[in-house]
Design a protein that fits this description.
Strand order of the largest sheet: 1-4-5-6-7
Largest sheet: 5 strands, mixed
Radius of gyration: 21 Å
Distance between the termini: 40 Å
Structural class: alpha+beta
Order of helices and strands: HHEEEEEHEEHHHH
Length: about 230
């Protein structure tokens, strides 16, 4: 199957050289072997229910999430895969093609930077009219040469969901107040497409700290509250 897809792509976009072509083909086939090996084990307890499940896209209604303040949030997205376990509960999988360096078992939210696993869990429960808590796990899966089949599984327990809803509320409040605070971690800027707009690098350390500690701006307090969640 992979070779057939590679051939189709080759006719549309010829490779710049045979050496590059062979390198990319070898990498793709290696990814396929990793994926197949993982599926042979994983498929013993789970079966696929949905692939690329969409909500809020085109004519499909959005998912509706209720926040702690009882306000509603409408969400659009596409979930790579939804599986059902033999026990009847659900497991969401999001495929990642890069490396695993920014993912940690003990940091499910990473200061509000990683919310996809949580948002998709509550969104699909509402969209499929499932009982609250039907999605037991949500994972980031790296079936690539970089990721080597690693999975970072987030158990969607009551504590995680309570924290997730609080994070969402705080982030929405930041937008509501119009206080778009710069990140408090320069490492966030390594792979950013908006450096020319943000201009964080133009400020010295003392100025940045002063901006991020200004107690007069409610949005900054909300933002720093989000950072407290690991």
């Amino acid at each position: 199957m992979a070779k057939e897809k590679i051939y189709q792509q080759e006719t549309i976009q010829p490779p710049p050289s045979q050496r590059i072509y062979q390198k990319e083909v070898d990498d793709l086939l290696h990814c396929c072997r990793i994926f197949l090996k993982e599926e042979e084990v994983y498929g013993e307890k789970y079966k696929v229910e949905h692939l690329e499940y969409e909500f809020g896209i085109g004519d499909v209604r959005p998912a509706v999430v209720t926040l702690p303040s009882n306000k509603t949030l409408y969400i659009a997205g596409k979930i790579d895969r939804v599986d059902q376990a033999d026990a009847g509960d659900y497991h969401i999988i999001d495929y990642k093609t890069g490396g695993t360096y920014s993912y940690h078992e003990s940091k499910p939210f990473k200061g509000g930077r990683q919310l996809q696993h949580f948002i998709y869990s509550i969104a699909i429960e509402e969209h499929l009219q499932l009982a609250a808590g039907a999605v037991k796990e949500s994972s980031y899966y790296f079936p690539s040469s970089k990721g080597l089949g690693e999975r970072y599984v987030r158990s969607q327990n009551e504590t995680l969901r309570t924290n997730g809803l609080n994070i969402l509320e705080k982030l929405i409040d930041v937008l509501k107040y119009g206080h778009f605070s710069m990140t408090d971690d320069e490492n966030d800027c390594k792979f950013c497409d908006f450096k020319a707009v943000c201009k964080r690098a133009y400020y010295d350390k003392e100025t940045l700290e002063a901006k991020q500690m200004d107690q007069e701006w409610d949005g900054i307090g909300k933002f720093k509250g989000v950072r407290a969640y690991e």
